[in-house]
Amino acid sequence: MTRVAGDDNAGFYRPRPGFGESDRPQALRVEAYRWGALTAGGAVRTLSLLFLLPFMLVNLAVWTRPATGGAGGVIGPLCRLLAATLTAAFTLSMVGVTIDIIGWQCIPYQPCVRGRGYLSWLGDLPLGPRLALLALIPIAALRLLWWLGERSARVFEAFPAARGQDRTVGGEDRVDSPGFWNDELVVRRLRAIHVAVGLGVLDVSLLGALTYLYPTAVGHLLFGAAWVLLAACAVLLLRPARVAPDGAGRGPVDLRGVLPLRIGAITLTVLALAYSAVPLEPEPPHGQLPGHAGAVAALVATQAALLGALVAVTLLQRRHSPTARTSWLGGLASPVFAAMAVAVSYGFAAALVYRVADLLDRGEIPNPARQNPPGAPPLEPPVSYRWAALAGLVTVLVVAATVLWRIAVTRRQRRRMAEEIVRRDFPDPPPEARSRREDVREIIARAAIAEHLGPVFTVFLALSVVGVAVVALDVVGIGPSELSRRLAGTDGMAATNLALATDVGMYVIGLVGLGIVVLGLFSYRSDETRRTVAVIWDLGTFWPRTVHPFAPPCYAERAVPELAKRVAALADHGGVILSGHSHGSVLAAATLLQLPSRVLPRVALLTHGSPLHRVYARLCPAFFGDPTLTELGDRIGWRWVNLWRDTDSVGGPIFSAHRPGQRPHVAGPAGTVDRRLRDPRGITVPPDDTVPPPINRHWPYHTDEAYEAAVRELAGRLEPGAGSGSAAAVAQDA
Hints:
There is one protein chain. The chain has 25 helices and 8 strands. Strand 1 and strand 2 form a beta hairpin. Mean pLDDT is 81; it is low at 162-172. 56% of the residues lie in helices and 6% in strands. The chain is mainly alpha-helical. Helix 4 (75-106) runs parallel beside helix 9 (184-213), helix 4 runs antiparallel to helix 12 (292-318) and helix 4 packs parallel to helix 13.
């Protein structure tokens, strides 16, 4: 392959002369677009999948809202506020490890630093300078996220849109809006706000503790200024990033207030560190960092309120959504992803704080309900993290049981559906092919399991909302903290059982995190695992970062404008067949929606293994719902062929059937788009082979005879004269 455009991150390639010849029209040139470097990379992808997962989930939540034909109402502001609480939770976890566990609880206690030279030197510093020095670690963590966001934007997202694609008008719910994939300034605005949120949370934690010990007028003034900073961030997040002059659609990015916010956050943090560095001699600290446990509980209460509001608003909007019945979870995907983000965030935070405390506590997981052994440091993380671990254990067990239940209760239905398919495809098989026929039936039945897992996510959403609500009751004094104190005063049996469950929860959270890392690494050794992981990852990184700026970069912000520019240039010299496999088909559809009308008569679309309807239309109905897909077909004159297989667990039909196994029932031109491929081609050994035909499942499609036939058909359906210089721009799944 020879690259003819683009760079190492994403480029267009053509085969070498004489390579890959077929019976296609002679004038048809093949050109492939590869964007693998935008989403791949072993270490980067695996670590991002783990550490940036909460940010990616909350960013995805806003794109899965019900389709109402408007701009989403208050779902956008609610998701942006919830995203800010995740940044605050990240900062609080870093504060809990450095300032609370190490600087406040461990260093003053001799058994904790005994034999640890890397910590004992901090004991020579006064309390204020010690805390100020340790506060640099959360600042460094925020700076790392900032740097990653800026770097990814420069490499992947800051791609100049083609002429006529600069966003000036258009509704938020329109993927075809000019410049829809050009949100660099929005990410820059959000990044400044989230950094200010992180610094504000750090300032409040540090100044609150010192003011509690040694109240001064300067301390109270700085403490109040830190709260004003957080309030200003909330106000900016409530305001839309883009403001159109006429109030319709999204106009230019409103950057007013961002620069003063950044300057104010940095200045206030410098003043807070300088104030903390003044050597004061208060009483030696005892117990937890003052206000830290209350701050964690208050943040959980805030998240509970936001989640409750998001559920209520989504339920209200789905009543006005024409696609609510066909949408995933009936349109409740937004609160589900938001709840996932909160759960994963606190799971990681609890695991981090307790693992560090466990290390410093000489191997005993800290728990006030259990007596510390002699000589062990009395480290005590916030009780909210302990209950987060317990809630995580319950959620994992219940969700796992629900998954097994759904697999069991739907097995007969799925096998019946698969039996109908294999009976139609392979009637009267010979005795030696019956085992192969059974294998095909099981693969088809397993490929349909995703359609039956809706109740699993409903159970998860209910558990998540109840869990955060219970922890939030700590704010009014009737939550987990009060229960822990009461249990500690009993005969010890209940407290011991709670401590044991908490310990198991901590290990479960750690194993889940380790499992994600192992899954990410294993995905580069197994093709099937890599494709499954890629579907989830590419879905999360497909949408612009309009909610959380620290989410993984959006590869489509470069890929779609780049594809649109290339296709438009090729169309000026002839017809173009835009072919896309898996997520490549989603990029192809988004590209066609961005093309100018003059280009569309010379463009055709070939999709295969496409999740356009099975995933995107059902999960993101406001952006890729059935009306949008139908409009796409109208724009290109229904020069569209979609190839799919029953054995494919990712792709499926777009118009002809909404569930695996259903027969086509769509009339009109939409009914001609979907072409079902029998997989495998046969279950007996061909005369010229030694093994039966393979079961291809999700890959490959382009080696099938039906693919070549579709290319020839679409080339013949392009407008007269376009074939003289035709080209096929193939967007394969990376």
